[in-house]
């Protein structure tokens, strides 16, 4: 066997594999002899079928199978030994009039080679690291929500502002008939609200869906309409009042604090506010870190310039899916995935050059920490280490979970590395300011 490579340019190469008869004949003969021992062909005793008949019936199929196995093994070994960093997989070049009856074969494969480039960790454009804090408005809103959750609900005969009105929205033409409960504080505009105020059980209220709620997406829940349709929905609906209730807010006392956080963990309104801010900070940190990762990723892609074997990759994309793609479909798919591929190469280079690794002990500790967080949500605050070890062992026996958690952990290591090596503009914002700045 002989394998040679011709470099077309820095990003493309062709590998040629020559296979001679002696490379495969011994294996083919052995398999055919085994076939002969076990073949059941009418007119012949088992193990006494003529070899010529076995070769005629099975010879070419065995030959093709063994040559292909030899080809793939040899090609993979060659790529490893030559330390070729290839993108995608080798693409076999088509050969017209290929003849399996010959004794020697030649195969050619196109290769797409990974580019050589450097990654600068100094960011050319400023990136903001947000410190998101819970402001007084958010804290008070959270406290009100907690008081509502544990408050007392009483039935009423007539609706007033702040009540909850249960009933049925109906519009025969649009096929709407939905039982729901409407919190009147979510109704938009005095005109709409006044239609509910003073209503009694059995009353039918006619309403326009346009600007009925402070948030148009509430129509999805209350009318059972599609999400995309809710924003522009402008129809008339009837609402039949079935029940009226009022939720009295729970008192801010020790009984409520114990229900929320456990006995004696919070003992005053000031401590409650600090606990809310502390819990919010943990959630906000995840969002802040994710945004930082997104912005660093975008910046690294923009400032790290290199070429890719574009034509090869588009051709490869045509072949890897369940269904073959057209050239135009492959081009479109490549354009959608190019940024992801670029960052994958950049990230790989950063990981390798800085020896960022995920060891099994790291993964085990990471898994145990995630398990503790989940158990805490169900009130199990101090699980024993053996219990954590047993659960982690079960999780890490699943290869899909290992892959998922390894990616998560590597993402955290990369983020820590970026925070250590890069400079960011620190900015303290409320959650509303963060949402406005990022998403609007």
Automatic annotation (TrEMBL):
A GO BP entry is:
protein transport
Which Pfam family, just one, is annotated for this protein? Trigger_N
Leader sequence range is none
- Stretches that traverse the bilayer: none
InterPro entries for this protein: Trig_fac, Trigger_fac_C_sf, Trigger_fac_ribosome-bd_bac, Trigger_fac_ribosome-bd_sf, Trigger_fact/SurA_dom_sf
**What region holds the Trigger factor ribosome-binding bacterial domain?**
1-146
Task: Write one Gene Ontology MF term.
Answer: ribosome binding
- PANTHER family associated with the record: TRIGGER FACTOR CHAPERONE AND PEPTIDYL-PROLYL CIS/TRANS ISOMERASE, TRIGGER FACTOR-LIKE PROTEIN TIG, CHLOROPLASTIC
Q: What is this protein called?
A: Trigger factor
